[in-house]
Amino acid sequence: MKTDRPLQAVNLPDNWHPGSWRERPALQMPTYPDPEELAQVQEELRALPPLVTSWEILSLKQQLAEAQEGKRFLLQGGDCAENFAECSSEIISNRLKVLLQMSLVLVHGLKLPVVRVGRFAGQYAKPRSADTEVRDGVALPSYRGDIVNGPAFTAEARKPDPRRMIKAHARSAMTMNFVRSLIDGGFADLHHPEYWGLGWVKQSPLAGEYQKMVAGIGDAVRFMETLAGIKVHNLSRVDFYTSHEALLLPYEEAQTRQVPRQWGWFNLSTHFPWIGMRTAALDGAHTEYFRGIRNPIAVKVGPSVTPDQLLRLIDVLNPDDEPGRLGLIHRMGASQVAEKLPPLLDAVKREGRRVLWICDAMHGNTESTSNGYKTRRFDNIRSEIEQSFDIHAAAGTRLGGVHLELTGEDVTECIGGARDLTEIDLSRAYRSTVDPRLNYEQALETAMLIVRKHAQLNPPVSA
C-alpha cells in the first residue's frame, strides 16, 4: 500500500547538530553531580551498537504517511514508565500479547492495516511536576525514572547517576531482541492468534466476543489458503516498532548518528520519539533537538496550547510538510476536549498542514482518589476517545491513531471497565511507580469501543 504523497528528501536544518539543544533552556533535566562522569558515559553510549536501524525508521515513516491519508490506523501503547526490575520475558511477552490482540480487534473492525508501536524499550525517563519530593520534612530529588535515579526515598537512590543510562540502553536492547525474536519466530502468526491469550482473563466478560473474532479470522485465513492452494506466509509476522518520550537529552544525543548511504541524522535509540507536553516550548531544548532528526516524531498537545502556538511549533518541526514526519497527540481530558480541540483542528486544516492526529485519552484524565491512589476512570477514557472521533468528523479531519498506557499484567490501577473496578480494588494490585495503566481487559475493551465508534461514524453502504 503506497501513499499518494511519497516520501521526499527535505532540507537539512540550519545551524543544527546533535548537541545544539544545549544552547536552549532545557526543562525536566536532572542535575548530575559529576559532569565529567556524564561526558564519559555519553562517549561509552556513542560506541555501543544502535537499538534500531535507519531503514526501520524510514519504513515506519512511510506507514505513518499512509495513516495520515486514512489508509492505516496507529496503535501506540505500553508502560507509563518501564523499570529495570521488570525487564523479564513474561512481562515483555504479555505486553506484546496485549498490543497484538488489540491490533487484531482493530484490523478486524476497521478493515485497515494497523501500525503497531510499543511504548517500550526505552521508556525509562519521566517528567515530574517538582524537582524535589518532601516526606516528613525531608527533601530529596524527585524520582525521574530508572534511567536517572531510583524510586526508594533515600539520598543514595535519588542521586542522579549517569551510569544508569548504560543500564537503560542494555535493557532496551534486551527488550528489543526478545520482541524481534518472538515476532520472527511466529509469535504474531495470524494462523494462530489463540496463542496470544493471557491465562488470567479466561473468565473475562470480553472473552466470548474476542474468541468469536479469533475463530472468524482463523477461518478466513484458512479459506484464503484453500482457494490459493498455498500458505499465506506474510501473515506469520507483523511489523512492530518502538517509541518513547525523548526526555533525557544527553541519552538521546549520544545515540543520534549518521549512517552510510543516508543523509541527515537519526535517533537510533527508538523508531518514534515524542516530545512531552511539559517540554514542548518553541524555544526549548527538546524542540531544538527534535527539529534536526529524521525520525518520525510526535508532540503531546495539551489544553493550554493555542492555535498560533501549535502552528509555530509545526513550522519548526516540519517546515517542509514532509509526509509521515509529524504526529500531534492531543490529551485534553474528557471535560475539556470538546472546547479545546476544535480550534486546533481548524487552524491546522486551514493552513493545509500534513499531520497525524492521535488521541491520548489517558493523561488528561488522571485524578487522585479519597484513599490516596492516582487513577483514571475508564468512563472518562472512553468519553475522550468517543468525543475525539466525533470532533474530528465534525471538523473534516481524521483521527488516525490512539496513544495508551497499558500493561499485560493483572493490575488494578484504573477504575471501571468490564469488571467495574472501584476505588477499593485499587489496593489489590496497584503496581505502577508513576501513572496508572489500563490492564489487559480494559485495553481490549478500548480497542472494541474504537471499532464500534468507527462503525457508527462510517456505516456500511447498502448495495
Automatic annotation (TrEMBL):
Keywords: Cadmium, Cobalt, Manganese, Transferase
Binding site for Mn(2+): 80, 363, 405, 435
InterPro entries: Aldolase_TIM (IPR013785), DAHP_synth_2 (IPR002480)
Cofactor requirements of the protein: Mn(2+); Co(2+); Cd(2+)
Binding site for phosphoenolpyruvate: 119, 300, 331
GO molecular function annotation: 3-deoxy-7-phosphoheptulonate synthase activity
Classification via Gene3D superfamilies: Aldolase class I
UniProt EC number: 2.5.1.54
Cofactor descriptive note: Binds 1 divalent cation per subunit. The enzyme is active with manganese, cobalt or cadmium ions.
Principal EC category: transferase
UniProt-listed GO biological process terms: aromatic amino acid family biosynthetic process
Catalysis: reaction(s): D-erythrose 4-phosphate + phosphoenolpyruvate + H2O = 7-phospho-2-dehydro-3-deoxy-D-arabino-heptonate + phosphate
Family: Belongs to the class-II DAHP synthase family.
Name listed for the protein in its UniProt record: Phospho-2-dehydro-3-deoxyheptonate aldolase
Species assigned in the record: Luteimonas wenzhouensis
Organism placement in taxonomy: Bacteria, Pseudomonadati, Pseudomonadota, Gammaproteobacteria, Lysobacterales
